[in-house]
Amino acid sequence: MKYIEKLQYITHDIPHLTHIEQAQLACEAGAKWIQYRxxxxxxxxxxxxxxxxxxxxxxxGTTLMVTDHIHLNGKADIQGFHMEDMGADFxxxxxxxxxxxxxxxxxxxxxxxxxxxxxxxxxxxxGPFADTETKPNDxxxxxxxxxxxxxxxxxxxxIEIPILAVGGVKFPDVESLMQTGIHGxxxxxxxxxxxxxxxxxxxxxxxxxx
Length: 210
What we know:
Helices cover 39% and strands 16% of the residues. It contains 8 helices and 8 strands. It has helices spanning 19-29, 43-60, 90-97, 110-118, 143-156, 174-178, 189-192, 197-209; strands spanning 7-10, 33-36, 63-67, 80-83, 102-107, 123-126, 163-165, 184-187. Strands 1-2-3-4-5-6-7-8 form an 8-stranded parallel β-barrel, surrounded by 5 helices. The radius of gyration is 16 Å and the shape is globular.
């Protein structure tokens, strides 16, 4: 089983920080896992940015994941991909990228998780936990209870795959979420829009690891 970091930081299109600046700050704060999420650029622009971020991550020993854009595999120093399409065919994706590349998926139902686990996903970002401005959608919110329920069902089915809470997670939510038995948390807005980026990241890190 691949190593899956407990606190996954996700970059985003925001006005006050570029993706490169976000990655630099996250690494300075101690990030060991960065998911580059940019759905607004051409492949040429994506690769230009990814190559800079990959150098930053390499300097700090940080895993670099990319949201979607799996066609860029092998064109930059990318360790894995997170697929937001809940219907993504992970069997086909695994054949495409091989066993060494980390593959994560987004899910909102037990059925999503079971299928992705069966097809070879390495972890699942399960959400949304709460309302989020980062990735607006009309999916039902899970809350803490939603994670408790899903983990009990997975245990009953003897399905073992790291589950991360994602979508609107704020610092005060971390303790109760981790108590459900989830593997970890993925965060974007609560860090990106904090008064002090580095302090916010380190607070999340301590809470998740604690």
